[in-house]
Each structure stands twice: as C-alpha cells, then as structure tokens.
Amino acid sequence: MMLVGATFYAFEIPNYFDWIVKKTQFLKGIKATLIKTFLAIAYFNPLWIARHLLFIKLFSGQFEAIGCNLLQIAFWSFVVNIPISFIANYIIQNRFKIKWRFLGSAVFSALMAIYYALSETFFS
Predict the structure, then answer these.
(1) How far apart are alpha carbons 31 and 124 in whole angstroms?
(2) pLDDT in tens, 111-120
C-alpha cells in the first residue's frame, strides 16, 4: 500500500487538488468554500474507496475476498464518513495553502485507510 501511495496516489491527488483550485479560482466566499469541500469529498467517493479496498485485498493475498461486495462496503463507508470527511476536507481545501494540501490529505488519508480497512468489519 505504501508503494501505491508513494506512486499512484502521489501523482493523482495533487493533480486533482490543482484542478479544484483552477475550477474555483473565480469563486468567492461561502460558495468557493463549499464547492472546494464538495469537490474534495467527491474525489474520495465509493469507487475510490472500493479501489482502496481492492488494493488491500490484493496486497494481503486475499484474492477470494475480491468481489462486488467491496462496492457495497465502500458505499456505506462513504455515507457514514461524510460528516468527518466534510470537516477534514473543508480544513484541507480552505485553510491549507496549496503546497500543503497534499500533505494534509496524505495524513487524513492515512487515518482513513485504517477506517477503510475496518469498514469491511463494520459494513459487511
């Protein structure tokens, strides 16, 4: 998982955050704040969570556990996590300077990776 985080995610997430900045550069006030936050939440959607769960299964050698059930687990994990994700992404997108957003997101994602791994237990 560290390899995926250091390569694939390290390329993908900063580019998405740059895209958010470009998409919202002309917005001001609460509208800009909310759109930035919701765009960040939209990135870490159920499909992203399912992909993360897939990587966990692949790297732990649990190939038989890979199936459509990961999408259901990811959906419920996403829905339950929205309040926490909203607060964290609000802070990351609106209080951190652009150069620190990836690091802030990486720390939050590391914590969420634990939650995603546990979400299989919670939502199976």
Answers:
(1) 37
(2) 888 898 899 8
